[in-house]
Structure formats: structure tokens, C-alpha cells
Design goal:
The protein is 73% helix and 0% strand. It has 15 helices and no strands. It has helices spanning 5-28, 30-34, 42-51, 64-83, 87-104, 111-119, 133-142, 148-177, 180-183, 187-192, 201-206, 210-230, 234-255, 258-267, 274-289. It starts with a helix and ends with a helix. 23% of the residues are buried. The model has no long low-confidence stretch (mean pLDDT 84).
Length: 290
């Protein structure tokens, strides 16, 4: 598999920033989220913990110091993960911290949160460059060079992330095929007319053209079902990636599902090779010189 160090570096940064945003939000809204009478009551939280038999993840959030401590811990590891300092260790702690907070506020989960939780374990095995030059120089002294097993785990983890993205699309498309409104092409009509999603008057403009609504609904299903296969073919890879970028930008603008859109767009970074990023940088430099 071709080198994808730039892509995995960008993905780590984007995931780290998303997690940092989450933990800062938790900290600034900790009374509303973690108080005994918060949006999810403490009794409900205990019922969920007992139902899933996860007593080892049970945190007494009725104690204010606990919520502050775990929020600050999440902010700290989000920063180290983003910077690439002890990124594997940071990914390990972030996974369990995210698990703890998601169970405490299980009704606040969205698709983006689930994807982050799935991707973090892959970073236990990935060797990515730090944003801190001094730290990189320190690692070079201790890094085991040409280690076949570490390199293999690194490549398999990156491949695992790419396959996971394909699974997300495939099963999302298969699920949509079971929905009547997706089959008859009216799903986007109801979504764009919903006050929960509609963000701009542009939504209203779209629903004035039924043929366009039908087309976009069916194209969404077709894209999700074909992406897992076409993205591995050199001739079609860039086409489906660019179409996917347009799709998620559309979701971001028309439906206000910002977290999910941001995470999915971040995942695309790993599908481009280092050569492609180098070529893009070269083209940009040439344009600037001209």
C-alpha cells in the first residue's frame, strides 16, 4: 500500500480538534450535562450502566470535582493527540474517556461521535508525525527503524480505517434501501422541510423542484452503495472522493449536521497518497509563483 503519512496526520489533527471541541463543550456546560438533574438524569445514567453491566465505567458525576477532572483530562489528551505527542497513549485514554462521557449523555450521540469512537482504536497502532519538531527529533533517537511488525501494524491500521469508512457507506446505503421514503425518492423532501434540519432558505428552494429532490435522494443511495467498491479502483477513486466531498458539504449546508460532516470529510484525507499531496503542494507553489 502506498504511503499515506500526510493523510493520517491530517486525520489525526481533525479528530483531535473534534474531540477537543467536545470536551471544551462538556466543561463549559458541565452543570447542565452532569448535574444530578441534568439533561440525562443521574438515575437514568445508573440504569444504563447496570443494563450494559459496565460498573467499571461508572463515575460519580454528582461530585462536581469528578466532572471537572475528567473534562480537563479529556482536553489534555485531545491536545496531545492533535499535536502528536504520545499519540498512541492519548488515543487509548481518549477512547475510554469518550466512552465514559457518551454513556453519561447517551441521548446526545450523533453519527460523528460514533465514527470517532470506531476510529480511535486504530490509532493505537499508527505511527504518525508530531507537529512538534523537538518531539520528532527525540523520537528518532529511540525509534526502532525498519521494524517489520510495527510497519505492518501501521499499514494494516490505516487500511482498517479505509475499510471502516467503506462499511459506513455500505450499511448506510443498505439501510436506506429498506425505507419507503428513500425508495420512492421523497426522503430529502421531508428532511429539507423539517425545522430540525432546515438551516437556510436554500432548503425551501430545493423542494420547489421535485425532480431534483428525487434525483438527489436516489443519487445518495447509489453513491453510498458504490463508494465501497469504486474507491479502490484508480480510475474511479478520485471521482467518488470528490462526489463524497460535495455530498458532505451539502449535508453540512442544508441539514446542519456539522459534526458528522466534519468527521466524514476528515476521513477522506487518508484516501489520498503522499504523492498526491506532494503534487498538490507543487501545483499550489507554481500558481503562487506565477
Amino acid at each position: 500500500m502506498e504511503n499515506r503519512q500526510t493523510g493520517i496526520l491530517l486525520l489525526r489533527i481533525f479528530l483531535g480538534l473534534a474531540l477537543l471541541k467536545d470536551f471544551i463543550t462538556y466543561f463549559s456546560n458541565r452543570q447542565f450535562l452532569f448535574d444530578k438533574n441534568g439533561i440525562v438524569s443521574y438515575e437514568t445514567y445508573q440504569d444504563i450502566i447496570n443494563y450494559y453491566d459496565l460498573q467499571w465505567l461508572n463515575i460519580d458525576f454528582t461530585q462536581p470535582n469528578n466532572s471537572v477532572f475528567f473534562c480537563l483530562l479529556g482536553i489534555f489528551f485531545s491536545l496531545t493527540f492533535t499535536l502528536g505527542i504520545l499519540s498512541r497513549t492519548s488515543a487509548f485514554f481518549l477512547f475510554f474517556l469518550s466512552f465514559i462521557f457518551k454513556f453519561r449523555n447517551i441521548f446526545l450521540l450523533d453519527g460523528g461521535d460514533n465514527i470517532v469512537m470506531v476510529l480511535l482504536p486504530f490509532f493505537f497502532f499508527i505511527q504518525s508525525t508530531s507537529l512538534c519538531a523537538t518531539y520528532n527529533a527525540f523520537l528518532e533517537k529511540w525509534r526502532i527503524k525498519n521494524n517489520y511488525y510495527l510497519d505492518t501494524l501501521h499499514k494494516l491500521a490505516i487500511l482498517g480505517i479505509m475499510i471502516q469508512v467503506c462499511y459506513i457507506y455500505l450499511f448506510a446505503g443498505l439501510h436506506k434501501l429498506q425505507g419507503e421514503v428513500w425508495q420512492d425518492g421523497t426522503a430529502l423532501y421531508y428532511i429539507l422541510n423539517s425545522s430540525d434540519f432546515a438551516a437556510y432558505s436554500l432548503d425551501t428552494l430545493f423542494v420547489q423542484f421535485p425532480f431534483l429532490v428525487y434525483l438527489l435522494t436516489w443519487c445518495t443511495i447509489a453513491f453510498q452503495l458504490t463508494f465501497p467498491f469504486l474507491v479502490w479502483c484508480k480510475k474511479t477513486r478520485k471521482i467518488v472522493l470528490y462526489l463524497g466531498i460535495l455530498l458532505h458539504l451539502g449535508i453540512l449546508v442544508l441539514m446542519r449536521i456539522d459534526n458528522f460532516s466534519f468527521i466524514m470529510l476528515a476521513c477522506y484525507t487518508v484516501f489520498f497518497t503522499d504523492k498526491e499531496y506532494d503534487a498538490l503542494q507543487l501545483k499550489t507553489n507554481l500558481k503562487l509563483k506565477l
